[in-house]
Amino acid sequence: MSQRKRSKGSGLSQGGDGDEDFNQSQMPTHSQVQRNLERRSQDQVNQKVSELVQFLLVKDQKKIPIKRADMLKKVIREYKDVYSEIVNRAGKTLQQVFGLQLVEIDTKHHIYILTSDLPRAEGENLHRDNQTAKLGLLLIILSFIFMKGNTAKDGAVWEFLRRLRVQPGERHEVFGDVKKLVTEEFVRQK
């Protein structure tokens, strides 16, 4: 019988067969994780959760497989003792905010991908109108702000929109005057 355990809700296996610096004997139990969490600042843990979500989204966008060893080395670092909690919270955030689920595709090498958890839209649900498009833009902006720790400078938001090919100074075919839409309409709606 495999000693690998599945973490609830995240789709992540916590066994460490392929990770040199995080093996089965080092894996803390649930009660140890809870004790370790009590010793850590919730702000610090939440920051690691946000960093992990952002890391996973970037890897997914670039279509690069996500390796557990990379998550540990590049994001989790000194928080290995609360690894499972950080991954669980990141998994919940991905699911609730983006409709994505982290799925292990290679149990030997611990490689993961993000898959859509949303039902496929069919028929008349596919039609677009300006309100739906504006809501989509608003959700993208709010998600960006969330990923930046619930605060983002105007310049960072505009740069993010430019990367999405939504130019604030130009008239957009769907959104119209993007700068006015964001600074007036979205702000007025709070």
UniProtKB/TrEMBL annotation:
A single cellular component GO annotation: nucleus
Bias type Polar residues, positions: 23-35
InterPro entries: MAGE, MAGE_WH1, MAGE_WH2, MHD_dom
Transmembrane parts of this sequence: none
Pfam families linked: MAGE
Region Disordered: start-end pairs: 1-41
MAGE domain mapped to chain residues: 45-190
Domain of life where this protein originates: Eukaryota
PANTHER family recorded: MELANOMA-ASSOCIATED ANTIGEN MAGE ANTIGEN, NSE3 HOMOLOG, SMC5-SMC6 COMPLEX COMPONENT
Full protein name: NSE3 protein
